[in-house]
Design a protein that fits this description.
Elements: H1 3-22, H2 26-44, H3 54-59, H4 74-77, H5 85-106, H6 108-129, H7 141-154, E1 159-162, E2 165-171, H8 172-188, H9 195-213, E3 217-218, E4 223-224, H10 227-233, H11 237-248, H12 252-265, E5 275-277, E6 282-284
Antiparallel strand pairs: 1-2, 3-4, 5-6
Amino acid sequence: MDGWVIVSIAAIIAVIVYSYHRQLSFSITASVTCAALFIMIVAVSDASHYRFSTTFIEMAFMPQDVADPGHFYTVLTSMFTHANFGHIFINILCLAFLGTAFEQRVGARSFIIIYLLTGVCGTLLFAALNWNEVVLVVGASGAISGILGAYARLFPNERMIFVFIPFVPLRTWMVVALFLLIQVLQAVGSANIAVEAHVGGLVAGLIIAPYAVRMPLHRKVKRMISLNALRRLAKTPELKSIIRRIENEEIPDVRSAWIEEFLSKAKCPHCGARIRISREAITCERGHML
């Protein structure tokens, strides 16, 4: 195995473990890691032919790697490896807009779990559908697609900016619909894009999000409420005590009752007004988004 590949694997694992332990923003640390590995691959290779270098090829994923214990590590390394500057720029841009917004709502640890699981699921689906093909797959797109799916599952009506339609806030389910349309167009066209990995990651995100995040369901409006959002409102010892009860409660109805209790006592940190829950977001009576 190429020495730089060993260094890359160690760096990726270290970043994941450290971010999970310290609850750092993985949207940022993953972006920095992807950028650092891209620079490293270009630097240790012929800059004009780095995609033919041993380091790049050994970090990329091939469908047959699933059955080869000596190369199964590429399921992970390929998620942090990119083919060119445009490829990494788009993915970092998506992490900046989509990843950061979602991570702030669910927390770094849940974000890391979803990011890695959906990325792996997308890669494995690509392998299953292209088993006899000799093709290299790289990029964080499958994991980013998984984050989009998780975002839509937990917050379907929340508005967000779609990077391909800037300055026009869309509901997350609309973004998913547009994303799927783009995948269909790319599959029909001749673009050299792993559409299967994108769709696999998206579906995985839709499925595993509630289990990975373990967010309580508000029984009145039937929407997911982030514990992180509630923690930001816990400014008094009483509210902090209720948060601990919510975190430790296993019975859904009892947990929902504690959420009701919390919301009845919490105040807006901006103006001191009462908190209210809509199908759009948590706001106060004066309209501040929380």
